[in-house]
Amino acid sequence: MTANQPTSRPTEFIVTREHRRFAEFCDACRQARYIGLCYGLPGVGKTMSAREYTHWDELEALLGPAPHRRSGLPPRDSGPWQTVLFTPEVVNTPRSVARDVDNLWGRVFGLAAGSSWYADRAVNPEPRPPTLVIVDEADRLKTASLEQLRDLYDRRHIGLVLIGMPGLQKRLARYAQLSSRVGFVHQFQPLSGRELQNVIESRWVQLGLDSAVQESATADVVNAIARATGGNFRLVQRLFVEIERVLTVNGLPSVTTEVVAFARESLVIGTP
Ligand SMILES: Nc1ncnc2c1ncn2[C@@H]1O[C@H](COP(=O)(O)OP(=O)(O)O)[C@@H](O)[C@H]1O
Ligand SMILES: [Mg+2]
């Protein structure tokens, strides 16, 4: 058995039930041109889902680092891009929010225009502007910045999704201008049941720990990991890093419930 060194391997995205629900929620906000609120505990997978839904990794690569400059034409089958993912700076002002969203908007629209360059003009004569703006970490926005987004929403005739922590919906309820326009609210839940088990199993296969989990111990170990993490994706991730470390440091051949308990201890200590 090789317990690989804890590394920051890129995480393979797992399409979960929560992700599918999130995607349906975004589609609904886009179609109805509503404001939608998505809230959930830190670490449940909101940001990963938003990036997946918007193909943001791919888009960032195409957009390139410099504003107003593309790093190349998008591939033929990539467009049209119709969603903007915006993460406000920790310290933001209405002006910086307006500027940053406008900038992203223009660049994403520019890509759509670029991809229609290839398109059969009879079928797709005009590039279409983005129809949905998703704002991650919306808890960072104060009233004036929210007001700025509300103004953008009204002027552009788009859907708007605000992602934040539990409590966001209560805070926004105080701003009538915004809350009166909220059409959908979505709670992003932790993993549970069979799906949590699948994620745990896929993690140890990914980490090469599968041979370290004996058949007979599987259910107990899965249960121990499920209990220790409460289905929180980030905690699952962190617990596995600890499990690998515990195995390596102690030269242990297999993952047992004791190893999980030990790893969990260090996780609790390490939790801010
Ligand atoms: N669908 C997913 N597939 C694989 N890993 C995921 C998924 N969702 C979340 N994760 C893992 O959990 C971590 C936390 O997810 P993140 O989206 O940052 O949570 P949140 O935005 O809700 O705080 C990610 O860094 C990743 O390791
Ligand atoms: Mg996040």
Describe the 3D structure.
The chain is α/β, with parallel strands linked by helices and about 270 residues long. The chain folds into 2 domains: about 15-185, P-loop containing nucleotide triphosphate hydrolases (Rossmann fold), CATH 3.40.50; about 195-270, Orthogonal Bundle (Helicase, Ruva Protein, domain 3), CATH 1.10.8. About 50% of the residues lie in helices and about 10% in strands. It is elongated. It starts with 16 loop residues before the first helix and ends with a helix. It binds adenosine-5'-diphosphate and magnesium ion. Magnesium ion binds near residues 46, 47 and 136.
Helix and strand composition category = alpha/beta
Quaternary state reads: single chain
Specify the CATH architecture of the largest domain: 3-Layer(aba) Sandwich
Largest sheet: 5 strands, parallel
CATH homologous superfamily heading of the largest domain: P-loop containing nucleotide triphosphate hydrolases
Q: What is the distance, rounded to the nearest whole angstrom, between the alpha carbons of the first and last residues?
A: 32 Å
How much helicity do the residues have? 40-55%
- How many E-type strands? 5
Mean pLDDT: 84
Q: What compounds sit in this structure?
A: adenosine-5'-diphosphate, magnesium ion
Number of separate helices: 11
